[in-house]
Amino acid sequence: MFKEVKLECVPREKNSNADALAKMGSQQEAVLLGSIPLEVQEIPSIPEIEIMQVDEAPKETWMTPILAYICEGTLPEDKFKARRLRYQAARYVIYDKVLYKRGFNQPLLRCVDKEEENYILREVHEGICGNHSGVVRWQ
């Protein structure tokens, strides 16, 4: 995670090299090749840092008991909860290591946790899908 991020706007007139490179990349014939100064960088411009991998313990979600039962056959000790879990898990399937719910005459429904749910709702309402347009009323 970054401690600080700095964004700097470079005006177009002061960024002619990047503009020429972008134009060259979009053309099939490199007409501008002679006018662009190219530099080959032998060593990295920033020092290489050592990165430690952080292993997070898997989070407990509503899917955890279902996954444990389907993958490992693990059931709760309480007989009532175990019977309920077996009945519930019959409606789910794992495909490519992802849990899906089977529906009657429906496609498989991908199961998500709270974080993914929040992300999906934000993207649909204000992200890649554009603004949420609401209900269209025909008159």
Question: Helices and strands in order, then pairings?
Answer:
Layout: H1 16-26, H2 64-72, H3 79-89, E1 92-95, E2 98-101, E3 109-110, H4 114-126
Keywords:
mainly alpha, 139 residues, three-stranded antiparallel sheet, 7% strand
What is the helix/strand order?
HHHEEEH
Report the major sheet: 3 strands, antiparallel
The chain-level mean pLDDT equals 79
| Broad shape | elongated
Coarse structural class: mainly alpha
Residue runs with pLDDT of under 50 for 5 or more positions: none
How large is the share of residues in beta strands? Answer: 5-15%
As a percent range, the share of helical residues equals: 25-40%
Number of continuous helical runs = 4
Got a strand count?
3
Looking at how many chains there are and whether they match, the oligomeric state comes to single chain
What is the alpha-carbon Rg in Å?
26 Å
Distance between the termini: 52 Å
Walk me through the structure.
The chain is mostly helical and 139 residues long. The protein has a domain at 64-126. 32% of the residues lie in helices and 7% in strands. It has four helices and three strands. The chain has helices spanning 16-26, 64-72, 79-89, 114-126; strands at 92-95, 98-101, 109-110. Strands 1-2-3 form a three-stranded antiparallel β-sheet, with helices on one face. A hairpin with a 2-residue loop joins strand 1 (92-95) and strand 2 (98-101). The longest helix has 13 residues, at 114-126. The radius of gyration is 26 Å and the shape is elongated. The protein starts with 15 loop residues before the first helix and ends in a 13-residue tail after the last helix. The mean pLDDT is 79.
